[in-house]
Design a protein that fits this description.
97 residues
Length: 97
């Protein structure tokens, strides 16, 4: 059942999900360097509010959210992949699908 649901996802589904999550401007991506400090703060506050609705995360604050978001930046070997790269990687891992 889960595999069927995953297989039914399209690149457009994934792109639309990320656009909503990260408040990406319609018609093109807005990189973090193009966002104002007030935009970044607004997104952080929205994420903090979302986290606080999840059981076990009610006590999380903006600093926790900031730490989670920045956690990967210092890891070696982390690569930011585009949606197409992710789809290609999954397709290569499961060539029979």
């Amino acid at each position: 059942m889960l595999a069927n649901a995953w297989d039914s996802l399209t690149v457009t589904n994934l792109q639309n999900a990320w656009k909503k999550l990260w408040s990406v401007v319609e018609g093109g991506e807005t990189s973090d360097s193009n966002r104002t400090d007030s935009d970044k703060e607004r997104i952080l506050n929205e994420m903090t509010a979302l986290f606080s609705t999840i059981n076990g995360f009610e006590e999380c604050d903006a600093e926790d959210a900031r730490e989670w978001l920045n956690n990967d930046t210092n890891l070696t070997g982390c690569t930011i992949l585009s949606d197409d790269d992710i789809v290609k990687s999954v397709n290569e891992a499961c060539p029979d699908k």
